């Protein structure tokens, strides 16, 4: 099924050597049947993408998600924070108004 992309470019086809190269980069050991299977599957995916590219999307606004999501977080409001003395009150160790922690380097 040869389908030309909407942009008029040539249809991309995954070769056996492409699958072998990606498997080498990913350090995967593939058997001969697996190489054949992945070559066919990847080409099927690209064929379907080419079909989708033919869809008329004029008038369809771009979205980042298919569901109408809205920000459900509360507004940022500046409020008084904990006083320094209270924050350090339960600290195991403090020095010059800061938390003192064990050296790790």
Automatic annotation (TrEMBL):
Coiled-coil residues: none
InterPro entries referenced in this protein's UniProt entry, alphabetically: Asp/Glu-ADT_sf_sub_c (IPR036113), GatC (IPR003837)
Gene Ontology MF terms in the entry: ATP binding; glutaminyl-tRNA synthase (glutamine-hydrolyzing) activity
SUPFAM superfamilies: Glu-tRNAGln amidotransferase C subunit
Catalytic activity: L-glutamyl-tRNA(Gln) + L-glutamine + ATP + H2O = L-glutaminyl-tRNA(Gln) + L-glutamate + ADP + phosphate + H(+); L-aspartyl-tRNA(Asn) + L-glutamine + ATP + H2O = L-asparaginyl-tRNA(Asn) + L-glutamate + ADP + phosphate + 2 H(+)
DNA-binding found in the keyword field: no
GO biological process, one term: glutaminyl-tRNAGln biosynthesis via transamidation
Presence of the UniProt keyword Cell membrane in the record: no
Enzyme Commission no: 6.3.5.-
Sorted UniProt keywords: ATP-binding, Ligase, Nucleotide-binding, Protein biosynthesis
Annotated family: Belongs to the GatC family.
Record note on quaternary structure: Heterotrimer of A, B and C subunits.
Functional description taken from the UniProt entry: Allows the formation of correctly charged Asn-tRNA(Asn) or Gln-tRNA(Gln) through the transamidation of misacylated Asp-tRNA(Asn) or Glu-tRNA(Gln) in organisms which lack either or both of asparaginyl-tRNA or glutaminyl-tRNA synthetases. The reaction takes place in the presence of glutamine and ATP through an activated phospho-Asp-tRNA(Asn) or phospho-Glu-tRNA(Gln).
The protein's name in its UniProt record: Aspartyl/glutamyl-tRNA(Asn/Gln) amidotransferase subunit C
């Amino acid at each position: 099924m040869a389908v030309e992309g909407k942009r008029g470019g040539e249809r991309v086809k995954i070769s056996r050597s492409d699958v072998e190269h990606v498997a080498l980069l990913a350090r995967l050991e593939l058997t001969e049947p697996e190489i054949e299977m992945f070559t066919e599957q990847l080409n099927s995916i690209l064929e379907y993408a080419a079909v989708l590219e033919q869809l008329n999307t004029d008038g369809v606004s771009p979205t980042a998600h298919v569901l109408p999501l809205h920000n459900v977080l509360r507004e940022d409001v500046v409020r008084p924070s904990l006083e320094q003395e209270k924050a350090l009150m339960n600290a195991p160790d403090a020095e010059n108004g800061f938390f003192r922690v064990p050296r790790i380097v």
